Amino acid sequence: MSQNTIDTEKKFITYKGLNFTESDTLERSKEFYGLMDKRRSVRDFSDKPVPKKVIDNIIRTASTAPSGAHKQPWTFCVVSNAELKSRIRKMAEEEEYKSYHGRMSDEWLDDLKPLGTDWVKEFLDIAPWLIIVMKKPYDLGENGEKRQNYYVNESVGLASGFLLAAIHEAGLVSLTHTPSPMNFLAKALERPENERPFLLIPVGYPADDCQVPDLERKPLEDVAVYYE
Ligand code: IYR
């Protein structure tokens, strides 16, 4: 073996999959769909605490997502500190106020009407945890050298999807919040230069009087095309 391939020698292990019977596979696929179909984006949070160990497991799950060249180009910044949450809220609302008062097009504002959103982001103070998902276009090596990551948006999007599923599976609720522009988060959290905010996800329990818009999901026929 040549000198420069030693570090990248491939190692393989046997993988047998989960091996369910066909009827269990059908049953499980139906059950999981039923569970995921109950997930809703929530904006009315309770301040009821969620143990840190739960958040740890949810993030471990997110980090099992596939990623380009298995680089796992993400960092999950987890905020429960009330003072920091409140600073984040203030900065997010400053940007959101500008977005709702001129930066977003009339078409965009019209499309948001059924969701009842506005620039006020009370949930950033109330939810017990804020998870800020950071994407890493490159890693920093030991001597500060840049190491390329690949398919970063796809990878971090997948990890965020796994994160939302794990949050829901645990009986908690979340919101995929995108205050725009989001750069203030990298500053407030003092992140290194190779991290960019991707999503801000409050996590907790729904408020007692929580309301969500009465939305319908597209049926299978409208989202899938089969070529058999
Ligand atoms: N970022 C704003 C606006 C917003 C945009 C989309 I697209 C949404 O689906 C929801 C909201 C906000 O968080 O209010």
TrEMBL record:
InterPro entries: Nitroreductase, Nitroreductase-like, Nitroreductase/BluB. GO terms for molecular function: oxidoreductase activity. Keywords: Flavoprotein, FMN, Oxidoreductase. The keyword Zinc-finger does not apply. Residues 38-205 form the Nitroreductase domain. This is Oxidoreductase. The lineage of its organism: Bacteria, Pseudomonadati, Bacteroidota, Cytophagia, Cytophagales. SUPFAM superfamilies: FMN-dependent nitroreductase-like.
